Amino acid sequence: MKALYFSLRFWLALIGLVLLFVAAYALPFLFPVARIALFVFVALCLIEGVILFRHRKGIFARRDVTDRLSNGDENPVTIYLENRYTLPVYLEIIDEIPFQFQRRDVLFRAGLKPNETKAIRYELRPTRRGEYSFGAVNVYAMSPLQLVKRRYQFSQDKQVAVYPSYLQMRQYELLAATNRLSELGIKRVRRLGHSMEFEQVRPYTRGDDVRTMNWKATARRSGARGTDLMVNAYQDERSQAVYCLIDKGRMMKSPFEGLTLLDYAINASLVLSNIALLKQDRAGLLTFSNRIGQLLPAERRPGHMLKILELLYRQKTRFLESDYEALYATVRAHIRQRSLLLLFTNFETVNGLHRQLPFLRRLAKDHLLLVIFFENTEMAALLNQPATNTEDVYQKTIAEKFAYEKKQIVKELQQYGIQTILTAPRNLTANTINKYLELKARGMI
């Protein structure tokens, strides 16, 4: 009996019967009609109940979802349905998704012919890392009469983990392998010169830079058949250390479009680390807040990306001010080789920068430091709205002040030779990869 439910059509028909019996008190000739209608209604409900419950497994359903969801991305979820009845059925499907999504609209309707199968696909976008628990897939089956429902339950208690944005990582990886990164906003950087790492001497082909001509090799290859021009081939500097330094302090707790700044930084770090490994560099990580978190030395071994993914998955925001002095001491003690340090942090005021500037200058003295912080996109939207009253004027004035301070922070960092990126959170990954490729092409690493 727990699987027995009644449809909306059942309750409407029942209300109609009650009204018909009420009318029969005033109009006695309606009473026989009401009795016949009641008997027909009860008979139809019994017939539909027998049809639905005589098959032990009349409907089969399965939810297909990966064991890992990608944070901040649309993750596909598929529900497969199969009708094992010998007559058409009408289905209502309710998927019990994790409570973190705060959605109550995962309801689908479908009609299936005998022995027909169908797939229902929808997407979920998580905004927090961690463990998520799916409930059951509830399928309510009805015959063509649609008076009585039978409930089926499948795929209960499915546990999945929400990891940093590996879907975004795979997308960048695929486009990098096919030289199509420009589709995601990655610019082609003109090389300003040659790297110093020699690869080989090869025959000249049209389009080669004549400045790379190797005249000694050309003279050795010349003979009776004529002159074979030879050029030196160079390759990008490899095995350079690239570290992502991720600030987990209270300033990284700010949410934008559902994700915190920390999650944006984690997603960008994952993608950048993968791109660095594709460019034959070594990738490492260091997290910090009021104390030092995890340090993963820069390597390029098989399975290193899995270590990076697992380390990023466990990171959480702390609510204290970050200790940049401890960051400098850790970098000085453990990162001895000159490296590219990408510092994901956030400064809201120039005074906030001044407190940390001495430590940033010391980091920039031994390494190539790139400070990446965020625009306040909601404040930028406020600046673009017209002011209609005095309160709006005050709000826009304060917003202009904060926007100006962000630009002052960029100028002050550049004054001390520190590379900077001021970016909207949604553009963080593309802008960071662009800067990395630019620094690499200019031979600054």
TrEMBL record:
The chain crosses the membrane at residues 36-53. Residues 200-372 form the DUF58 domain. It comes from the Bacteria. Keywords: Membrane, Transmembrane, Transmembrane helix. It holds the Pfam family DUF58. InterPro entries: DUF58. This is DUF58 domain-containing protein. It comes from Nibrella viscosa.
